[in-house]
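Hello forum,

I keep getting stuck at the same step: I have a sequence, I want structure tokens, and every attempt I make locally crashes halfway through. Rather than fight my setup again tonight, could one of you with a working pipeline run this one for me? It's a single chain of 356 residues.
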Amino acid sequence: MSAKLSFGDRLYRGEKSFNFIENRRRWYGLSAFLIITSSLALGVQGLHLGIEFKGGSEFIVNKAGVSVPDARAAMSKANVPGEPIIQTIGSDKVRIQTGVLTSVESSRVADVLSSTFSVAKNEIDTRLVGPSWGEEITRKALTALAVFLLVIIIFLSIAFEPKMAVAAIIALFHDVWITVGIYSLIGFEVTPATVIGFLTILGYSLYDTVVVFDKVRENTRGIAGGSRLTYSAAANLAVNQTLVRSINTSVVALLPVGSILFIGTGVLGAGPLKDLSLALFIGLIVGTYSSIFVATPFLAAMREREPAMKALSKRVNARTGKSDVGAAAVATAASTATGERGPRNQPKRKKAKKRK
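Reply #2:
Ran it on my machine without issues. Output:
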């Protein structure tokens, strides 16, 4: 009968199992590599902040056929300080960003662009952002992030347990740091849309982790009283039981985000759509990875240090004759998930004495 079951059903019943918990050192090594790479990218290259955060001036010329070299040559005529950042948007727009300019300098740039590309001055979109406004936006974003993390810690501690909250927050920082590092490595500009993407990542990462933790809590409820599985084995079973759901949810979310990202890059050009989709695309992948390979193994490592769980591990290993948790999990997970039990040793009946 088990041969007719799907792959997901076999994972849920424990008939097929991947040993995520016992191989946690491998996942930690991969995460350490990604974190170090992200840290180097942030330290060497840093983030390319948009004018919304650092202040500056932006000019968008709405005319087809304007190239980046043409726009750079026009800006050299305007004689403004600093090196401008010039990008094409689609096939009919070019965006020019400079440092903070005075009203006189801004008007001179608009005049030069208007005469060079033969467009009306009112058809050049101009935006001036002061540095104080960018600092205020940055401060509000950091404040919102701190409040968000505090509320999440309190909620997870009440709904689940404090150690689950700690593991979830560590996975959350893991996701954001790697996403920001890869974002820096690629060199995309950080805009308010990027911040929205990062905040969305926080919610998605926690959602996926909470789904796994809810199954862990179900499998480990009252486990210290006399279970045939250790905490790590029960947690590993929970990850396997939610594995297909996590992958399916991530794939469904990645398909539209990937379409927006690649269409935005190849067709629409630079813009908020591309900034938002890149942050979401990276964050969705990293968030799914951390909920499976980081959060639950880290939680199991913390719980296995408790005296009650150490005593449970000794009883399970002595009963199964296994020296490692992973082998014991494979041997007993299927019967635990399906409710099957082994044969009972019935006492033999004594033969009745023959009557004389």
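The chain has two domains: 2-49+133-313, 56-129. If your local run keeps crashing, start a new thread with the error log.
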